[in-house]
Structures are given as C-alpha cells and as structure tokens.
Amino acid sequence: MLGDQNIHVRESARRALQKNPSSAANTALQKAVTAATTPAWKAALMNALAERNDPANLNLLIAGAASDDDAVRIGALTGLSKLGDKAAIAPIMAARSKGSPAAQRIATDCYVRLADAMVARGGKASALSVYQSLLTLDGYLKCSGIIGIGRAGDLSNLPTLLEAAATPDAKIRGACVEALCL
C-alpha cells in the first residue's frame, strides 16, 4: 500500500508501518524510501524511519542527510540524531551549512541531540568532541556544549569549564554550574 496512487492510502500505510515494531515493516519502509520519486513522499518516509529509531536505517538516513531537499534532509538528520551512532557526526556536521537558515538551525540542534544520544549509549568520547566544537558558538549552543562537557568529560576538562565560568554572561555561568554538578 506504500505505492498506492491514493495519497491517503499511502499515508495511512506509512503511519501504520512507522509504529509497527516488526523488521518486515522497517524493510517495507526502506524499500519505499529507495523507490520514492517525489521529495514530499521521500521526506514523509524519512520521518517514519526517524521515528522507528532502528540502527538498520543508518545508511539510508546518511544518504538522506545529503539530500538537496530541506524536508528530506531534516527527516534524515532527525533520525540520525536519535541513533547516537558516531557515523552520524560527519553527515550532520555537513548539513549544518546546507539549505535554508531554518534547516541549518535544525541541523545544528540535531548535532546537539546526537551528542546527547551518544552519551546515553556510552559513547562519551565521541560526544565530547561534538560538545567541544560547540564552544566556539554563541548562546544556547555554547551552553549546550558546556553542559555536554560536564556529561561526557572528566577531570581533564575542568579547566575548560572554569575558564567559561569566568565570563560575564550569566547564562554561560549557569551552564558551567550545571556542568560542574554533573
């Protein structure tokens, strides 16, 4: 039904397979992504794969992250960020400078979520490099990097946190306090 001409039938099948935990459902979605001919349908299928959070979708999501279509790329980046696999670092990083400004912001948020997912899955060393790269940015992204260093770092990262705590920016100092408490 994923190939049905009626968009409502197709969409209902996509939503049903997205929530179906079987590997056959995942395989059907993978085949449909490969066969998709319109960006809107491909984006919907990428979103379904992202929602499934299945490591078997890593390569399709990486391919989708290179898409020229913002919606397809965002769906793929969302899926990659949830997987917490270090193989997603490069595709997400590349997407941070591609597409519309809104798509670039979403890619950067996915970059942070990827690091958080890597920490949750025991990949602290890889996550630490992502968090450290955020220190060159401003605002909430720098705060995310600081807090992430608290989650993924060790005592050797203490000077970085103490240096950041010396800033006059109250938000940065607050992030440092939280990082030091982790």
Distance between the termini: 49 Å
Number of DSSP helical runs: 11
Run of helices and strands? HHHHHHHHHHH
**Tertiary shape:** elongated
Notes on the structure:
- With 182 residues, this protein is mostly helical.
- Helix content is 74%, strand content 0%.
- The chain contains eleven helices and no strands.
- The chain is elongated.
- The chain starts with 6 loop residues before the first helix and ends with a helix.
- The mean pLDDT is 96.
Helices and strands in order:
Elements (H helix, E strand, L loop, with lengths): L6 H13 L3 H13 L3 H14 L5 H8 L4 H14 L5 H7 L5 H20 L3 H11 L4 H14 L5 H8 L4 H12 L1
Helix pairs in contact: 1-3, 2-3, 3-5, 4-5, 5-7, 6-7, 7-8, 7-9, 8-9, 9-11, 10-11
Supply database-style keywords:
mainly alpha; 182 residues; elongated; single chain
What's the short story on this structure?
The chain is mainly α and 182 residues long.
